[in-house]
Amino acid sequence: MASRYRTSSVLSVAGAVFALLTPSAVAAQTVPERVALSANGTYQGGASSVSSTVALTANSESGSFSSAFNVKAGPALDISGRVRIFRNVSLGVGYTSFTANGTADINGQIPHPFYFNRARTIAGQASLTHAETAVHVRLVIASAPGKKLQFTAFAGPVFFSLKQGLVDSVSYTDAYPFDTATFKSAVTREASQSKTAFGGGADLAYYFTKNIGIGVMASVATATFSLAASDSSAVSVSAGGTTFGGGLRVRF
Questions:
Q1: Where are the domains of the chain?
Q2: Mean pLDDT of 226-235
Q3: What is the pLDDT at residue 32?
Q4: 180 φ, ψ (degrees, to nearest 5)
Q5: What is the second-level CATH architecture of the domain 34-251?
Q6: Is the dihedral of CA 98, 103, 109, 114 positive or negative?
Q7: Residue 72: what are its φ and ψ, rounded to 5°?
Q8: Cis before residue 23, ω within 30 degrees of 0?
Q9: Where are the alpha helices (DSSP H) in the chain?
């Protein structure tokens, strides 16, 4: 009976050792993370201009005013996560947010009340905001998991949401003999639109511990929107661009 017990024990230990040495078990030991998260402070490039020319009627004659708003490159927020679905392949979701505030330069041609074809020039400014968010759905390919240094590349559809300030109309003052006019104020409106594009990028992370690290990333995704001005003319607006930055990495 004792001999059978010892034989059974030896077989059990041998089976356990064999299981630990199989490739699948070794792989499982060297792949500790199933989920990875990142939070980045980034800089979004791709400065652009939002310009429009709107027709108006004054003193029974046609005039117009134009506005130009520069969307300057600046800081943005990037948050993302991924779940490993097969070996070094993951499915990821990211969120980015970018806002640019500034002033639009306005120039107008206002018809004269007494003379045809003698428009008076006005100039002024109005405060506008460009705000965009994007949700990224990504297929992520990673280098060997469980290492201190890890590289990932990703690509997939990007769902942009844009809010852009536009100048709808202008007001002015004039007085006899009405040869000049002075800009007074502008009426602005926030136009919004959504669009789907495609983007991709890469990330390089270094983990100080099994779960915590830091990393750098770069990505690119762009979209062009066509908004409607107050006279129904088209206003082209660009969103997205090349983004790069860095921040915290967590895996578990």
A1: 1-30, 34-251
A2: 96
A3: 56
A4: -130, 155
A5: Beta Barrel (2.40)
A6: positive
A7: -85, 145
A8: no
A9: 2-21, 23-29
